Amino acid sequence: MREIPGPPPQSDVAAAGGLHTYQLDLHERYGPVARFQLPGALEAVSVADPVLLEATAAVNERPDQLFEFLAPLCEAGNLQTLPAGEHGPLRRALLSVLAGRRSHEAHFAGFTALATELADRWAERAAAGPVESQRDLSELSLRMICQYALGGGIDDPARVVSAFETVLTVYLGGLREGDEESERALAYLREVVDGVLAGGGSDLVAALVKADLSPARVRDTVLMIMLAAHHTTGVAVSWTLHLLSRHPEAAARVAAELDEVLGERAAPEYADLKRLTYLDMSLKESMRLYPPGPYGARETTEDLTLGDYHIPAGTTIFYPFWAVHLNPDHWPDPRAFIPDRFTPEEQAKRPRYAFIPFGLGPRSCEGAGLAMVEAELVLAVLLRRFRFEPVAGHPVVPVERFVLWAESDILLRVTERQMGQ
Ligand code: HEM
């Protein structure tokens, strides 16, 4: 067994501009398995090799310290760090709804209406200048997940959206201690979920009740779903538009495919999505280059062997999804945008965990299936109707703000396009 390489034990993560960029440099210097110190003095082992990751795929615990920042949203224990025995039934309940085709189909018309509303707004203001795609698309995905998780019977969806934004900026942004305004906003959100609970108004809440979750745990779960769902799905779409705006030949292929599959229709039906193969490949290639959740973590409960390395029980394993996606051993010319990497033939040549935007194993994202449906629908509606161009001189710098986010938004010039253009 070899000693795990790594820098001297002193965290220089902040100096690197954040964990997402630190990881890229760490693995470039020390290879695919490296130890480093997380802010707060916790030592972790980071694994950027997809084959070695297989040995960790069954690990079913997360380190508490790294998820403490979510505590203000949790009355009944933090869902992200629940012990495996409690987490399993919750995961099954979530998957029974979030991963089910029936549920995706049932919400498709409502999602289409929300996406079309945004497209109408962009069409109206196109002449006035570029759109702030990241801001608008995050808000759209928050509206979608509210509709999904809370059902259609909410009196004031705009108030729910703004209360959630307040809670996020204050508590999770760490800007200030929870103040009166944010406490009121959180209490309001819990009341809304209680109303849905009492009225049985969403299939998600119904599935959680059926799994015997306490009302407090249902509230926590719904808030956590709103958090996990909206920024991630929003930025997956805005990064894809960003990349397509800079690769006109790929954008033209997406447009031709949409014209062929949709004809004169402005939006796809659920069944059309599986025919939008180049759109799907472009979205995946964008999530490879800009994974919305750039890293994850586990805590080992028994000793593991990763190639030449011994990992004792109780180790924090760090999953650097971004570094895995840019690993040159599996992705030649890793920074280039090449959607054809995701043809079935090309995918079959790569190890299973070379592309892991939704994580891996028993703690992977339960919303992956729903997220792909939402993102593909929104992209189809927008790219059927518009051509997107970058704004010269506007810098697009990935930073971390819960998700991999563009620091000053992604400004795009929008022009309506006719079929065949
Ligand atoms: C493009 C959109 C999305 C991306 C890229 C994404 C990515 C991720 C990642 C990387 C994780 C951590 C996985 C790990 O540690 O292995 C995660 C966890 C999670 N995600 Fe997503 N996610 C997305 C959308 C959603 C949506 C739409 C929902 C729900 C409707 C959702 C619900 C969750 C939940 C509940 C967890 C915690 C998993 C657990 O601890 O059991 N996500 N997601």
Automatic annotation (TrEMBL):
Coiled-coil regions, chain positions: none
Cross-referenced InterPro entries: Cyt_P450, Cyt_P450_E_grp-I, Cyt_P450_sf, Cytochrome_P450_monoxygenase
Source taxon at top rank: Bacteria
Family: Belongs to the cytochrome P450 family.
Protein name: Cytochrome P450
Protein source organism: Nonomuraea insulae
